[in-house]
Specification:
- About 10% of the residues lie in helices and about 35% in strands.
- It has eleven helices and 49 strands.
- The radius of gyration is 31 Å and the shape is globular.
- The relative contact order is 0.11.
Amino acid sequence: MVRTRRIWVTAAAVLALVGGVSGTTAHARQAPAAVRSDGKLPPGWHIDQGRSAPQLVWRSGRRVPMGDARVEFRADGRLLGVPKPERDGHTFRLGLDGAARAGALKNLQVWSGGRRLDTREAAPTTSAAARPPAPLPANPVDPGKPGPYRTKTGSYRLKSVRLPGFSVPVEMQAVVVAPTGVSGARPLALFLHGRHATCYAPQGGSDDASGAWPCPDGTLPIPSHRGYLRDQQLLASQGYVTVSISANGINGQDWQAEDGGAQARSSLIRLHLAHWADWARDPRHAPPIVREAPRADLSRVLLIGHSRGGEGVNRAALDSLYPPPADQDGYHGRVRWHISGTVLIGPTVFGQNPVPDVPSLTILPGCDGDVSDLQGEVYVDGTRAVSSGKALHSAVYVIGADHNFFNTEWTPGQAQAPAEDDFSDDPDHPDPVCSPQAATRLTADQQHRAGSTYIAAAARLFVARDDRVRPLLDGSGRRAPSADPARVLGHAVGANRGAGFLPDGKVTVTGGRLCSAVDPDPAVACLGQGATGVSPHFAQWETGRETGRHAIALDWTSAGTPARVRVARPISLSGAEALALRVFVPPNSRGTSLDVSVTDSHGRRATLGRVRADGLPGSDRTASYWARELRVPLTAAHRAGVDLRSVTSLELTPRSGSGRAWLMDAWGWRPGTPAVRAAGLPRVDVGRLTVDEGDSGVRTYHVPVRVSGRGSGQVRVYVVDPATGTAKDRLVTVRPGGHGIDVPVKVRGNTRYGADVPYDVLVKAVHGAVVGSYRGGLTVHNDDPAPTVTVTPLADRVTEGAALKWRISLSQAADTDIGALFVPVPVGSGGTELSTKDVDPGWLAEVSGADPDPERPLSQVDGLYLWLDVPAGKTGLDVTVPTVRDQVGEPAESVTFQQTDDEGKPLPGGLTLNGTVLDAS
């Protein structure tokens, strides 16, 4: 049964409650009463009083495909939690624990990957067709060209494995593509797909695909791991042994993992790598395809992950350098491999803690309809100042690419199972950038070819250490012809970039604004109001406000007024060839010009040159506020005698008439890709402890935090208040064996029933540290039985014009609201049921949204429900149903409201509200 907004209304309207029972001020359940300004839950929402605890339920009118971005429930902009998806693809459930109790459900919204799911997207506000930028100059070396080797394809299946936190074993299955006719050991490239539907019905449609695992009878596993065969074939032709592993067993269960399955995916990757290490040492027990392939060189491993697979390979690289807690990990052997680099395709980054000392390439699809906020940019931005900065972290923005088409098994017309374009377009209001007919949109084959080319570029730079392909990845403004006609733009941090101007550090800004990447206050936030679309640089994390994530915003109405950035301590640009700035301007804008100047500690100033910035093609549905890398040589500073060893300020002076721009950072740059050695850093992992509240007394518990590794570093710790959902943060120095992160929680025992209460803790690396399990805390489990609910008739036989009345009583007060849902059911045989014209029309409209006409029994009114809610601390309430007096002679009429089960159906043996109305004539 589909319940609409008409179910949930204000207390006075729904229940016509009166006070006086055990001192209660009677009203409906506080949660429904506080969700919108008019007191109603938004369309598609309802609350189920589950057998153990109430659940907040949202049902979408359209099927929500299983994807990589998390579906999140938010209230007033803060994260309520990640709901459990039902197999129907429409329904999502979130337990209403102490963090989402009464009064906390205002302005409910459903988000996924930076996009609202619970509202229909408005027609694009940008109507003009977008233009792709001009092609960049070609790079002399094109990594997208096939190599000299023939290839061979095969597969293997090993015994399934059990991973911590997952009840069902996960498959160990893979497809291998390897070169033939080569000698010696060859580097290994491992692919991991993302979160997609796991099973499909061969004769069914997209609605028959599900996230079940194992696959039910009559359905088959979706072979997502076979979707990168073209990429594997290109790399194999160039001499790489490639393997793409299956992770359906994780996809079918990762909704229950606090980290979205990142640790499980890391464990799976390293379990496969351990087998490859065994086979390289002794191939006699290897699968046939592995024996027929060249021996894999495990000292040169490239990991490629798509979507949640991207977060998985990032975690695998982290875990290979800094071992995770054994109880959280599915792999417990030695590390017998070296991760040379990672490629992250449209990745998620729920933890926002990228590994700093492993080179990475992040591919950002400009028309991503799944991870649509392009949060993967954090794999670049989030590494700044964390470690030595020698590892190159690159992002390339592929204009017109969607999320799915990098995997042929997720591509319509190429996949075995039903597949779709994740950027859903309204034919009546086509998106100017991403609709299929837009000049900027890529076809599936064009997109996949571009993806293959840039994966090969990363392999050639990170593994083969061929610096000639670096200009494709580091923002030097070169293109790979094999990727044509795709427009692929890039920027980077790390490698041979030296000291720089970093807004996250200690800087003073004049003539511009030091803005916050994530802040609910538009006056403080970097984009604020009026933005068309979003910025990948400002992807939201789990808190409504973040400390330490900044950019510099420029807004001018006439040319010539400089914005000046002054650092607290002079920086050295000595040895650099150029100053590399990452700057973005509004989408679709053209011709923004800025003069770039620097000043040293002696007051000597030099204008280095002028940069021009054009906006990316964008609409209100794209994440196109993305920085281009702009470079100016330092020759003018040398001529002016500026002491580049002691630079104190950077100036940007607009030369266009008016405009806006944002500076992400600026660095001293010179060519080259230095060797990277991972630093010995402390690693932080937050666990979760669940404790019973007890019957009496006060006990103090501590959130479990493990610090391993070496050295000391700084992390930022956020502690979320379970009552308000707001977070307080502090900067903490951590070291192995230390007690820097100490979060005590006082638990007061009682004998009253209540909801479980979570005290959540979140951690981010700041400097000289890494974070694995970023989210944990302490959950206080209610250990008291729920009170008994009884119904006592107060006026169950009345004359028309009077009100039927019942009293709802609890055996004892509870620490949470106690509610039950009732639905009218037909009366017994021979009786006459109360109709829509026998009750107050205003009451009927508020309860169900229905009109009295045409007259019909109450049990036939669609959406008529009563939510009876006893507030926390109270023991009862009265409920009335007002009737009206008419001039028609009629027999006695009856009504029965029956308690429902979790699905809104009458519950056999449940509570009932029975009433009879007598004729007044």
